[in-house]
Every structure is written in C-alpha cells, then in structure tokens.
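User: Show me an example of a complex going from sequences to structure tokens.

Assistant: Sure. Here are the input components:
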Amino acid sequence: MAMTGVLRPGHAQVRVLDLEESVRFYRDVLGLVETGRDAQGRVYFKCWDERDHHSYVIRESDRAGIDFFGFRVLNTAELDRLEADLNAYGLATERIPAGEMLETGERVRFTLPSGHAIELYAEKTKVGNGIPLINPAPWSLQREHGIGPVRLDHALLYGPNVAEVQKIFTEVLGFYLVERVLTPDGNANAAIWLSCGQKVHDIAFAEYPEPGKLHHCSFLMESWDQVLRAGDIMSMNTVPVDIGPTRHGVTRGCTIYAWDPSGNRFETFFGGHLPYPDYETLTWTFDNFGQGLDYPQRKLHETFLTVVS
Amino acid sequence: MDKNEQPAEETRMPHTVTIEDTGERYTCAGEESLLSAMARLGRRGIPVGCRGGGCGVCKVEILSGEFGTRAMSRDHVDDSDRAAGRLLACRVYPASDMSLKVVGKLQKSVCRPDRPVSSVTPPVTR
C-alpha cells in the first residue's frame, strides 16, 4: 500500500500527578528511553525501536489525562493540504510553532467533537534506534531495559459525538474503519477502530458523556511472550493491572491493560490482523462486546467502560 | 500524624476503619491505602479503578481520624472536596483509627445488597 498523508501515531502528551515518580515508572518499569526535558518541565520519551526523537511526553499537572495525540504526516505539503481540508470541512486549526516541542517542526492542532486535541506534523528529528542504518543488528541493548515496547502503537479515547469523529477521520484524514461495536439498540457505533495504514488500528474512540477522556495509550510488544514478560515486570513492581494478559476479540490483539502512577491507563499490545482499506468493516453487536474485549473470558470488564482519566 | 511518634511505628500499626453507612469495620495499616484494605472485605463491586488518584471512582468522605494523602486529580477532588474531606480512598493512608462515608460510585457498590453484578451500563448514557 502506498502511504501518503497521515503516516502513523507520532506522539501523545499525558499529564501526571508526580513528575519524578512518573519518570521512574516510564523509564525503568515500562522501559522507555528518556530523550529530553524542556523549559516547561516536560519529559520526553521514545520506545527503543522508534527513530524519531520522542513519542510519549509527560508533564506534571494537578489533573491526570491526555493533553493531545499527534500524527506524523508524509511531508509539509501534505501537512498544508490536510490543514486546508480540515478547514474546508469546517474545523478550525491552530499552528503551533516549530520548536515549541523539542526537535519537532510546526504542528497543526484541532479539537475533535469528542473534546480531544489532535495534532498533525511533518518534521521531527530522527535520532535513530541505536542500531546502524548499514548492516543493522536486530535489536539493541535498550530493548532489555524494563518492559521495553517497540513503539507507541495507538490510543483509545473516550468522549461524545463518535459519529462525527469517525467522519472527520474517514472523510478528511484518510483513515478507514476497521472494526466497530454497535450501541445496544444497534443504530449507532459505541466504539470505533480506525487505521491510516495497515495496522489494525492507529486510533480508536468510544462514546462517553464526558469529553476529552483518555482510556489508554498502547505500546507495541514483539510477541505474546513479551506481553507475558511485561505482566511479570508489572507484578514485580506492583503496577496496578486492569485486564489481562488476554486476547481481544476486536483487533485479535494480545493485551494487558494497566495504570501508570497517576491513573492513566496504558496497554502492552501484540498482534492484530492486517487490514486493507478495501476490506469490509468488522462489526460486533453490543451483546458480544465481552468477547470483543476479552475473548477467552468473554467478559465485559466494568472498568473498561467506566474508568478513564 | 503525631510528630512525637516514629513514622515507622505508625505505618506498621493497623488502624480500624469504620464505614459509617453500613457499620462495617476493617483494618488498614498505615502504609496501605484505605481502598486496598477495603477491597479485602471481598464485597463484590468495590470499584477498584486506577489506584493512582486519576480516575475518581473510589471517592469517600472522611468523618474522623488522622491520615496522610498522596496526589490526586483535581478533576475529581477540588478545593471544596478537599476542605470537606471528600477524597479518593486509593490515595489516603490512615495514621489513626478512622471513620468514613462512601460517596458516588463507591456508595452504590458498598451500600447495595451483596449480589452479583447482573448488568453493565453501556457507555452511551445520554
């Protein structure tokens, strides 16, 4: 598939209640690589195999939750085109100057009807993954520190007006709907999984009355073994685990949901099927949501629906 | 916490926590949060959420007792909550015997008859 336009999730900025406690968690337990700190006090991380300067940024606040989620686009021409398309669709955008975020070019920010701030950007310094571009080894020692995910994979966000959000992603930003869960009456979508490439999802949304909520940011593991190892490391460090290790019916991904020290949920994720844009959307009825969430246990864990930050 | 006492002694000492709504009592050591000790009551549906002060499902109102707290999200505990002792049980650590009332989502779980959860509210609640 020729990828143009929006390429991939590029960064999430998440609020934490205690910065240094959270730095220790993300660096030493989750095993992200710390790549910088800025004058605002934000701390920047990347996963070991990511090449761009950062993918996950935390800042101290008196509220948990997510500030914004950003996508990397192909180039500045695509950034300009996508901004014009958003404006033509009726969405206001704002340009955040280059350098406001470390090693990052100009960002186009807009707010979804779900209350979430989304960003697009075309430039971020490539710092590499610690492996040479010529004759590369398959991994570096950074992989062995903590849980050690490969990349920031996706986020699930909770808020109102999911139908409107779906239109923006599919009609303006070039995403397609991979899977969905219907509302109990079957007339609308309670949750949607959207892809901009061939990943099973790059972002997902669930209908929720409060705007702007974070359900989780997800980190990709290389194998089911690595997900189980992540569970071991969570327990060794008394990380509060929500669900798993198990397999989702939706996406077929293997998963553990757990919480960071401020109550922001995160996921260690592996697998999922490989969709194409011409594939039909997979649909789950609400009475099968339990299987969608936790296929072996067929259980709609109440925390999945009610606990967000 | 009484400054004359050794914190180490204080944290080892089990305190008695009374849930005024039901009269139930449970013990909670000083290094343990009110929520994690309450969860040992084994009552179904005690909403143990994020345990990090971020999600707000475990709100209680402290009626008496000495305690310490850790950071909790202002989305769920504002200044008036704090002044009234309405705090998240996952972030409150007892330094004496305490009594509390359960509020919000916790109230529904703790005060209802002890029976299985028969249905789950769908996320669409408008």
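The lines above are the inputs; the final block is the predicted structure for all two components together. Chain A has a mean pLDDT of 97.
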